[in-house]
Amino acid sequence: MRGDDVIAAAIRDAITNHVTLRIVGCGTWLDAGAPVTADAYLTLKEDSGIIAYVPDDLTVTARAGTTLRELAETLGANDQWIALDPEGDDDATLGATVATCSYGPAAALFGTPRDQVLGMTVVLGTGDVIHAGGRVVKNVAGFDLTRLMIGAWGTLGVITEITFRVRSRAMRKDSMAHMRRPFPASYGFREPIIVNPRLSAALKQRFDPAGILNPGIMREPQ
Ligand SMILES: Cc1cc2nc3c(=O)[nH]c(=O)nc-3n(C[C@H](O)[C@H](O)[C@H](O)COP(=O)(O)OP(=O)(O)OC[C@H]3O[C@@H](n4cnc5c(N)ncnc54)[C@H](O)[C@@H]3O)c2cc1C
User: Fold this and answer.
1) Which residue has the CA at smallest separation from atom 38 of ligand 1?
2) What is the average per-residue pLDDT within 144-160?
3) Mind listing the pLDDT tens digit for each residue in 95-119?
4) C-beta atoms surrounding 99 within 10 Å
5) Are 40 and 144 part of one and the same domain?
6) Which atom of ligand 1 is found nearest the CA of 97?
7) CA of 97 to the centre of ligand 1 (A)
8) Is residue 87 located within the same domain as residue 133?
9) Beta-carbon neighbour count of residue 148 at 10 Å?
10) Same structural domain for residues 156 and 182?
11) Which residue has the CA at smallest separation from atom 12 of ligand 1?
12) Contact predicate 191/182, CB 8 Å
């Protein structure tokens, strides 16, 4: 199934023939949500590809069947990314990720798909094609249909094309784990340990360069 017109025609046929449709991306998460009983599948996976990508504008538009992996590879070539890291499969589709408002840990900093999507094309259950939002970062006007569709789980329409806000990758990435390990029971309290020595020193330098706060309490792991 490729192209808005083809999808719209399929939906109109389904209306005429009283056939219910299950929208399917890659199909990795069809068991999630309330059970769906439908007569036929409307599969979007083949309707994939990047439609427009302007690295300097920090926007990218892709068909809904494009996979998270494919988009990451395209953007990665310019040290860019979209801040979406949902649990599941890298071959999951953008349409499903947005339709289910799926997100991962990056949402704590960058927000959910509602904060990453600038606009989209949707084929409604009537067969009408609508365009919501836009392809630029500043485009808020009127009733926000884009956000309405995000998280609607395909109950209002088939998302066919999506424009995302793109971000530059951080020039440097570090991870820090801050673990607490018990002292011998007789002490009755716990000892904090920073497990990345390089970060430990960098943090200390940044936040307490004179080394006056609780000196010695942070220990490198044995
Ligand atoms: C093991 C596993 C664990 C996961 N855990 C989490 C989690 O913890 N948190 C989280 O947020 N997400 C989670 N997800 C969800 C997952 O990250 C996304 O939803 C994923 O992108 C699904 O992609 P898909 O193409 O396989 O979707 P599909 O399984 O094909 O579809 C998922 C749903 O989206 C609908 N849909 C698909 N495409 C469209 C479209 N174009 N327009 C409208 N509706 C559409 C389908 O009808 C279906 O209801 C998990 C997924 C898996 C496989």
Assistant:
1) 96
2) 91
3) 999 999 999 988 988 999 999 999 9
4) 28
5) yes
6) 21
7) 5
8) yes
9) 14
10) no
11) 102
12) yes
Domain encompassing residue 40:
4-168
Alpha helix (H) ranges present in 34-165? 68-76, 94-99, 107-110, 113-116, 145-149
> What average pLDDT is seen over the chain?
84
Give the pTM.
0.82
Last residue of a domain, one of 122, 140, 168: 168
Give yes or no for residue 105 CB within 6 A of ligand 1: no
The protein residue whose alpha carbon is closest to atom 21 in ligand 1 is: 97
Give CA separation, 116 vs 41, 86, 92, 119, 177, in Å.
28, 13, 17, 9, 28
Predicted local distance difference test score (pLDDT) of residue 172:
74
Whole-number percent of the chain with pLDDT over 90: 60
91 Cβ inside 6 Å of ligand 1: no
Q: Are residues 137 and 194 in the same domain?
A: no
Task: Let me know whether 159 and 185 are in one domain.
Answer: no
Mark whether 163 and 55 lie in a shared domain.
yes
Q: What is the pLDDT of residues 34-70, one digit of tens each?
A: 888 899 999 999 999 999 999 999 999 999 999 999 9
**C-alpha 157 – ligand 1 centre gap (Å):** 15
Give yes or no for residue 100 CB within 6 A of ligand 1.
yes
24 shares its domain with 57? yes
Q: Which of 28, 66, 101 has the most ligand 1 atoms within 8 A of CB, as the residue to mutate?
A: 28
Q: Is the CB of 112 under 6 A from ligand 1?
A: no
d(CA 176, CA 190) in angstroms, rounded, equals 19
What pLDDT does residue 157 have? 92
